[in-house]
Amino acid sequence: MAEPCNVVVLISGSGSNLQALIDDLHGAGSPARIRAVISNRADAAGLSRARAAGIDTRVLDHTRYAGREAFDAALIAEIDAFEPQLVVLAGFMRILSGGFVRHYQGRLLNIHPSLLPRHKGLDTHRRALEAGDAEHGCSVHFVTEELDGGPLVVQAVLPIEADDTPERLATRVHHREHLIYPLAVRWFAEGRLRLGADGAMLDGAKLPATGHLIRT
């Protein structure tokens, strides 16, 4: 049996997507193993989730570095000590430098709470409601130097309901995030998902611009 894919997860907060990954990837037959969880905040609740699962944790306080490039260089050194094939952003609230993104090109995934390319950035649930969108959801994508702009891997699509508030919509979207992020990580770990010259590839075929769509 092949060695599992080494994964490092970066977090800044509660770590709910981290927990979904821990739950999905546990067990001897998993195609991936989370080698470490790294946070830029010592009070990130997700660190406790990692420790409870027996996963190594590290904290790098970004305020202790002279700038983004210095922090990212230190972060790269911490990550690479665990020899990951994949780095997963799970609520990591830092804009990454171009050098960091290029260092992990093709092995850096992010999840975003909207149907990209709509509603890049923050406050996506309120913005979707204010825009009168009929659908909303979440997207897993490869990270490139364009903020929230890398090739899409998979999107979960759900209808916006008449009684949705930003808070209710956020809860509904979170449930979908916890489904599609482990799926994308498994695809990568199994060698099915790769970033090609023309975009994201699944099972050797180029994915559509929307990624693989899952409607719920």
TrEMBL record:
Residue ranges of domain Formyl transferase N-terminal in the record: 6-185
Matching InterPro entries: Formyl_transf_N, Formyl_transf_N_sf, GART, GART_AS
The reaction(s) this protein catalyses: N(1)-(5-phospho-beta-D-ribosyl)glycinamide + (6R)-10-formyltetrahydrofolate = N(2)-formyl-N(1)-(5-phospho-beta-D-ribosyl)glycinamide + (6S)-5,6,7,8-tetrahydrofolate + H(+)
Domain of life of the source: Bacteria
Binding residues annotated for N(1)-(5-phospho-beta-D-ribosyl)glycinamide, in chain numbering: G15, S16, N17
Annotated site location: Raises pKa of active site His: D148
Residue spans crossing the bilayer: none
Keyword Zinc-finger in annotation: no
GO cellular component, one term: cytosol
A GO BP annotation: 'de novo' IMP biosynthetic process
Record-listed (6R)-10-formyltetrahydrofolate binding positions: R68, M93, R94, I95, L96, N110
Enzyme superclass (EC): transferase
Active-site residue list: H112 (proton donor)
Enzyme nomenclature, EC number: 2.1.2.2
Function: Catalyzes the transfer of a formyl group from 10-formyltetrahydrofolate to 5-phospho-ribosyl-glycinamide (GAR), producing 5-phospho-ribosyl-N-formylglycinamide (FGAR) and tetrahydrofolate.
UniProt name for this protein: Phosphoribosylglycinamide formyltransferase
